[in-house]
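ASSEMBLY PREDICTION REQUEST
Request ID: AP-0331
Submitted by: J.K., bench scientist
Number of chains: two
Total residues: 392
Priority: normal
Notes: Please return the full assembly, not individual chains.
Input sequences:
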Amino acid sequence: MTVNLESQNLILKLWFLIHRDYALLRSCEDQMYGEKGLTMEQYATLVAIKYLNDPVRPTDVARWIGRRTNSVSMMVDRMVKAGLVRRERDRRDRRVVRLIITSKAENALKPATRAGWEFIQKIMSPLSDEDRQTFARLLETLRYQTMNYLNPGEDIEEMVRNDDKSHVNLRGRLVQRGLTFTPQAKHQGEKKRKTV
Amino acid sequence: MTVNLESQNLILKLWFLIHRDYALLRSCEDQMYGEKGLTMEQYATLVAIKYLNDPVRPTDVARWIGRRTNSVSMMVDRMVKAGLVRRERDRRDRRVVRLIITSKAENALKPATRAGWEFIQKIMSPLSDEDRQTFARLLETLRYQTMNYLNPGEDIEEMVRNDDKSHVNLRGRLVQRGLTFTPQAKHQGEKKRKTV
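STATUS: Completed
Returned structure:
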């Protein structure tokens, strides 16, 4: 019984930590992208438009950032006004409205991406590669479970494969098109080198 | 060099997974609390008002759920209109406006809490207690790092202790005041019993 209660406390603790960590991570990202003139959601939207497979529609962005399509559409309205995004009819299918990022957004995206990359390296620096692999495995279990909850009876393995594919594609494009992999960010060079 | 690139890919993967998992978890929680007539943020706000130390002000809720105070105030306005929350001057200090939950909100809170508890047990069911402890340790590292990023030069150990204290208090109160710890939720009883 005691063990059982401890186990339940641990589950509650995990739930709190997941929410707490994400709130903190969001604050970090808001601050960091804010310094580059973008909100975190604007940044994620620009990344999606630039690196997902063309044509990128609001519904693709919504799936990517995990929001409802109508809230993405409202955000895109504001980004159009701010000169960051344009809407255009797709030439192959006139019914499709695709999103395009402007040169102003391109100019904001590069330093924001570099700052984001330095940030995430810094945040992950105390974790060894083994820790990171374990972390990824645990997060993958959580992803599977939440997908399963949201899509009962569907082929979750297939959904996971598609999810991984879009990440891998995006990662590849980030590397190709100018996300510089510096040898190490300055601030945690020492610690990191030990683990590599 | 190859190792280094692999290590960088792993960091990027983790970053994607953290965001992806949280978007999925939010969708689950929105759906689950939605079935009980609450948005996830309304639910978190009601929990904060009910279980944090009295008086609970909008700024306390904001810290708890990791939002800005003015966005919490707007949400509270809507919750007042919906008959879920009242604002009241604190008797000990008239300058303080404290938040109080209504009996309508109390009635919504209990089934939502039970549903939430069954949900999180289900989601965590494939993880052994050892996995969960590792997960908590990794999330604690991430919490430390993000707190450190947001509050450079401050006493992060002290912040972590306060953070843990508020979680432990809240956990205690959830148990005391009616969050029923059922032996196990039905659906994953089999799997769970093996790990306990």
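REVIEWER COMMENTS: Chain B touches chain A through 67 residues (CB under 8 Å).
SIGN-OFF: pending second reviewer
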